[in-house]
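Handoff note, outgoing to incoming analyst
You'll be picking up this chain. Sequence as last confirmed:
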Amino acid sequence: MKFFRSRTKVSSAWTRRAKCSPLLSLAYEGLVRVDAQGKVQPAAAEKYEFNADRSQLLLHLRPGLKRADGTALTANDFAAALRRTLDPCLGGRQYASTLYDIAGAQELSELDVDNSTPADLQKAQDAVGIDALDDQTLILSFNEPVG
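Most recent structure output, in case you need it:
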């Protein structure tokens, strides 16, 4: 496929064209999905719950998730994918703004890497509210309570 050029791995983080998004949605299942009525439904996350003040979202992955090669897909993989979407050192971050409700996400995504030290980058990465609690549990921490 010319959309993906000669890459041996396909990642939504490398997508720069809107016309690639439908193709990627056939290859990837998100943590949640939106049904025909516009309601959020579980997908790779079998359940999710907000804390009392809605400043954090806990996502519990379905057991047995696997990649195409049969290896386990874990909360660390989802955390890494979300963080990669925000990585200021990578191009093609046009969807990063969809994650800006997450603590530290906008600051990391908009970090001027040309005028920052490696320590600045590490500090911004460490401040992002995306964490895997264990192989099956992902937690997102928000800037303020969400809907």
